[in-house]
Amino acid sequence: MKNFDFKNPTKIIFGKGQIDKLKEEVPENAKILMLYGGGSIKKNGIYEQVKTALEGFEVLEFGGIPANPEYSVLINALKVIKEENITFLLAVGGGSVIDGTKFLSSAALYEGDFPWEILSQKIPTQKGMPFGTVLTLPATGSEMNSGAVITRAETKEKLGMGGPGLFPAFSVLDPTVIHSIPSRQLVNGITDAFTHVLEQYMTYPSGASLQDRFAESILQTLIEVAPKVLNNPKDYTAASNFMWSCTMALNGLIQKGVPTDWAVHAMGHELTALHGIDHARTLAVIAPSHYKFNFETKKEKLAQYAERVWNITEGSLDHKASAAIDRTETFFQELGIKTRLSDYTKDYHGTAEEISKRFTDRGWLGLGEHQNLKPEDVEKIVKMSY
């Protein structure tokens, strides 16, 4: 197991009716900017619950943050923060709203003239404007980590950011919020969380037995609850396990002491930026090809995953490893996720070359747990996904 430091300061407030506790968590005399997405929270009752819980506070609102939070929209929110002297941000939404709020937390205190530099120059945020979250869509784990990904349509870029100053002060997780979530978004959430775990697990053996079993237990739980959540989102037990699995998949715990990959996400982000494909679906497109391309370096963990998660115990190590890739792709397909790029766009020719060029232009020296995947390897992997 590798050396590591671990600190996660986010307070989790989990369960039914916990939105009411907002008034106990928001700083006294805070001037709040409440941020949300397309307005679904006004249809499912969450908006009213939040507003009721915040009675007595000065609350301004900024809605319309899109999936894949858009830089130009967030800049408009940043103007509100500065013009109205906002002191606390509250994200009420899924990962996109929370990621957008993290950008605003950083940008509100950024001393430069062009906040996109936080992403383009990979400037870590040491201190941001304080914020909390009310999670409305389990998926990204953004409610309990310090990372975010922001899209800029003008340049067709999707870049990440982070830093110790971007942990939410608190996050309210009420599993009943999934009652009104469309099936497509639930499927995306399951796929996103599942792939988050794989990115931190599907590398090579590192002697971190407990971390491996943490990761495997999250994968097993997602496999178990997926059909229950999709068939009946009002199943509170299934919803609870789904929501907590998504949070645990990316709150920093399972990546400590182990090598991590994240090449699937790096390539997937580019597919979203270029073709507008849902984030989770880009991961399902890239992951099987990535594991096949890197089969020799990943086959020990792939075989372990086959045995412990999918109960594939017969055959050689190579056979089990290959079967694990196939079973993972089948799982995505059983959820209703298509796993080829050509299923999403007919304009895919040249995509691999463009993504490879972007990585070259950014000076990326290598992706993956060994940092040895070059742009030309990325091109091959993306082509395999066509």
Write a structural description:
It is a single chain. The chain is of the alpha/beta class. The chain is built from 14 helices and eight strands. The strands form two sheets. Strands 1-8-5-4-2-3 form a six-stranded parallel β-sheet, sandwiched between helices. A hairpin with a 4-residue loop joins strand 6 and strand 7 (157-162). Helix 11 (295-310) packs across helix 12 (317-335). The two termini are 37 Å apart. The mean pLDDT is 96.
Element layout with pairings:
Elements: E1 11-14, H1 22-25, E2 31-35, H2 46-53, E3 58-62, H3 71-83, E4 88-93, H4 95-107, H5 117-120, E5 131-135, E6 147-152, E7 157-162, E8 170-173, H6 183-201, H7 209-231, H8 236-249, H9 263-275, H10 279-293, H11 295-310, H12 317-335, H13 351-361, H14 375-384
Parallel strand pairs: 1-8, 2-3, 2-4, 4-5, 5-8
Antiparallel strand pairs: 6-7
Helix pairs in contact: 3-4, 6-7, 6-8, 6-10, 7-8, 7-11, 9-10, 10-12, 10-14, 11-12, 13-14
Distinctive features:
386 residues, alpha/beta, Rossmann fold, Dehydroquinate synthase-like, alpha domain, two-stranded antiparallel ribbon, 11% strand, globular
CATH topology description of the largest domain: Dehydroquinate synthase-like, alpha domain
Q: If you average the pLDDT, what whole number results?
A: 96
Helix content: 40-55%
CATH class label of the largest domain: Mainly Alpha
Q: Main sheet?
A: 6 strands, parallel
**Shape assignment:** globular
- Structural domains: how many: 2
Q: CATH homologous superfamily of the largest domain?
A: Dehydroquinate synthase-like - alpha domain
Please count the beta strands (DSSP E, at least 2 residues each): 8
Counting DSSP H or I runs of 4 or more residues, the number of helices is 14
Query: Compute the gyration radius: what is it?
Result: 20 Å
Structural class: alpha/beta
> Which strand-content bin applies to the residues?
5-15%
Order of helices and strands: EHEHEHEHHEEEEHHHHHHHHH
Unreliable spans are: none
Architecture of the largest domain in CATH?
Up-down Bundle
